[in-house]
Amino acid sequence: MTMEKQISLSIFDLILNAGLVVQFVMFGLFLASVGSWAIILLKRKLIKTALRQNEQFLQGFWGGWNISEAFTRAADYPLSPVAKSFQSAVRELRKVSDDKTEDKNLRADIVIRALKKANTTELAYLEQSVSWLATVASSAPFVGLFGTVWGIMNSFQSIGVTGNANLAAVAPGISEALIATAIGLFAAIPAAIAYNYLNGKIRQQAMQLDSFNQDLLNLLQRERAI
User: Fold this and answer.
1) pLDDT of residue 113
2) Reduced to 3 states, what is the DSSP secondary structure of residue 70?
3) Contact 145, 184 (CB under 8 A)
4) Distance CA 136, CA 51 (A)
5) Contacts with 1 (C-beta within 8 Å, 6 or more apart), sequence order
6) Is there a contact between 126 and 47 (Cβ–Cβ < 8 Å)?
7) pLDDT on residue 172
8) Within a 10 A sphere around the Cβ of 186, how many other Cβ atoms?
9) Which residues of the chain have pLDDT under 50?
10) Quick one: pLDDT at residue 175?
11) Comparing C-alpha atoms, which of 21, 30, 15 is closest to residue 175?
12) How far apart are CA 30 and CA 43, in angstroms?
């Protein structure tokens, strides 16, 4: 226990004793890591809730709801992209019906455009801020490496000034520098994993939307609504 505490304190001391530029790099990477974790947790919760509400809405929709009832019930699933896409399509279809439009090709075209627009909006909402994870994953190691190179450069400058090149004199400066790379990897690795995971879940949402759109269009055609 004592040894672990000493190691922890030595790392903390190295960070505090690092040069101003290296400290600035470390602080920036720390903020990037905190921001990434906030996005990861919030987006994971949002997408998980969206998937659950999609399933609940679809169970009711295919379980016996008619179009009017499904439109009303969709309000109970505010985070479901499927429910919101359905609402947009029915809302536009009702506007066309109110105008007494008899051209079914026009109705179908309007419904399809409404579905595409709703899909784009819902997927954009799910993808919002996810690109930040890709930015952190790709740039954090290089930012950390910059801090490391800068710290090592300062260490060699100190050696040149003092003329002392033994290991005891060089090791602390190099250790300070290498911590920047470690923090950069600490920020980048979870961001890269989460980016791929969240993108996979968003693609799952996109496929579910596309599948539902086709089923809805078929249903509306069978009922001669379009």
Assistant:
1) 92
2) helix
3) yes
4) 26
5) none
6) yes
7) 64
8) 15
9) 1-9
10) 75
11) 15
12) 20
User: Nearest 5°: CA angle at 39, between 146 and 119?
Assistant: 120
Structure confidence at residue 93 (pLDDT): 86
pLDDT digits (tens, 9 = 90+) for 82-92: 999 999 999 98
Contact between 89 and 117 (Cβ < 8 Å): no
DSSP letter for each residue of 136-183? HHHHHHHHHHHHHHHHHHHHHHHHHHH---SHHHHHHHHHHHHHHHHH
Residue appearing with tokens 């950069």: 184
Neighbours of 128 (CB within 10 A): 12
For residues 219 and 2, give the distance between their C-alpha atoms in angstroms, rounded to a whole number.
Answer: 70
The predicted pLDDT at position 1 comes to: 42
137-182 confidence digits (pLDDT tens): 999 999 999 988 888 887 777 766 666 656 555 666 677 778 889 9
DSSP, res 76? G
DSSP state of 128: T
Six-digit token pair at 2? 């004592």
Residue ranges of the alpha helices (H) in the chain? 2-17, 20-62, 67-73, 81-98, 104-127, 130-162, 167-222
**At residue 157, what is the residue type?**
Q
Q: How far apart are the first and last CA of the chain?
A: 73
Please state, in angstroms and rounded to a whole number, the distance separating the CA atoms of residues 221 and 142.
55
Are 22 and 175 spatial neighbours (Cβ–Cβ below 8 Å)?
Answer: no
List the one residue out of 144, 140, 177, 141 whose CA is nearest residue 35. 140
Sequence ranges of the domains in the chain? 22-219
